[in-house]
Amino acid sequence: MQYALLIYTAPGTVEALSPAEQQALSVEYYALRDEPGMLGGAGLQPVTTATTVRLADGKPLVTDGPFADTKEVFGGYYLYEADNLDQAIEMAARIPAVRLGGSIEVRPVRGKAS
Q1: pTM for the full model?
Q2: Could you tell me the domains of the chain?
Q3: Which helix (DSSP H) or strand (DSSP E) does residue 9 occupy?
Q4: Whose CA is closest to 14, among 71, 75, 104, 65?
Q5: How far is Cα 89 from Cα 29, in angstroms, rounded to an integer?
């Protein structure tokens, strides 16, 4: 089964690290892409670059910024193939954001509709 490992971090966490620490963190994230079962993933640009689209009176209403004001923001994801949820959780626990006070949401990916 495929799992989305959704990475949430507190804004400014990575920016507070030294350049050397940021580089080491990047190396960790990229190394996870080479793990067996890892199908892909990507980091997202900062939340300040987000645009949110809603409908207002049946017409698109476009606003700058994220949908909700939260303590953690969605910062990236991995797509991981695992035999079971426990295996996906083990991989999620290795994602550096957890160590930095963030969280990883583990969600099964739906298959194609038949």
Answers
A1: 0.85
A2: 2-108 (3.30.70.1060)
A3: strand 2-9
A4: 75
A5: 16
